[in-house]
Amino acid sequence: MAFSSIYLLTIISLFLFPTMSISTSLKSMHFTFYQHDIVNKTDFMIIKGITGADLSLTASPFGSIFILHDPLTISPDPSSDLIGHAEGATITSSFDGLDNLSIGKFTLNFRAHKGSFSVLGSVNNLKPSDIPVVGGTGDFMFVQGFLRSSLVDIKGLYFVYKVEANLYWPPFATTL
Ligand SMILES: *[C@@H]1O[C@H](CO)[C@@H](O)[C@H](O)[C@H]1NC(C)=O
Ligand SMILES: *[C@@H]1O[C@H](CO)[C@@H](O)[C@H](O)[C@H]1NC(C)=O
After folding, report:
1. What is residue 35's predicted lDDT score, i.e. its pLDDT?
2. Which atom of ligand 2 is nearest to the CA of 100?
3. In this predicted model, what pLDDT tens digit does every residue of 32-59 receive, in sequence order?
4. Among 120, 122, 123, which Cα is nearest to 133's?
5. Residue-wise pLDDT tens digits, 54-67
6. What residue spans of 40-149 are helical by DSSP H?
7. If you measure from the C-alpha of residue 40 to the centroid of ligand 1, how many angstroms do you get, rounded to a whole number?
8. What is the DSSP letter of 81?
9. Where does ligand 1 bind, in terms of residues with CB under 6 Å?
10. Residue 14 near residue 146, CB atoms below 8 Å
């Protein structure tokens, strides 16, 4: 009964307020950048896990904790324009050593956009992963969406990730 009256109200309001639409006030932004991660230079193992996989370049024992501070650039070339940095921690969360829980903050300053957004999610080392964006600061205040991160290059201990950002602002954020 509650459902049908809400439904009816929606139908009525569609007729009464035909210009009211949530989607027209939604702001979004889509862009790509590259994350440069170097073992023992920008990304360090702080705690070695206790069981599961052996430590290798793609896997780590269950419970391992890594802390990183990686530069972000506009192209895969590390000498291309710097647009910000990523701070984060990853915790190995599967016994095969391939999944990790990632906590990250991306601070950006590019194309007149300045601020940061934070991510939290589980990612797999071998497959492209979608990581939810849980909020932001500055020009990215209230942002939601996801990052799609994929490994595009490995040179020894140096890993380059392509990060596609798909950001959406909820309607109330446009009044800022
Ligand atoms: C990183 O540094 C630690 C501590 O010095 C060392 O044990 C480890 O082998 C290094 N990792 C790699 C992949 O070289
Ligand atoms: C966690 O997964 C991400 C995404 O695949 C990867 O970039 C990162 O190297 C992984 N971290 C560890 C410590 O395995």
Report:
1. 97
2. 1
3. 999 999 999 999 999 999 999 999 988 9
4. 120
5. 999 889 999 999 99
6. none
7. 6
8. P
9. 39-40, 157
10. no
Q: Rounded CA gap, 8 and 11, in Å?
A: 5
Say how many C-beta atoms besides its own lie within 10 A of residue 125's C-beta.
Answer: 20
Element (H, E) at 145: strand 144-155
Q: Is 175 helix (H, G, I), strand (E, B) or coil?
A: helix
CA atoms within 13 A on the CB side of 6: 3
The SS3 of residue 5 is helix
Q: Which of 76, 111, 105, 100 is nearest to 88 (CA)?
A: 105
Tokens 């109330």 found at: 172
H or E stretch including 10?
helix 2-16
Q: What is the largest CA-CA distance in the chain?
A: 64
**Is-contact 127 144, C-beta < 8 A?**
no
Ligand 1: residue of 40, 41, 67, 154 to mutate (most ligand atoms within 8 A of CB) is 40
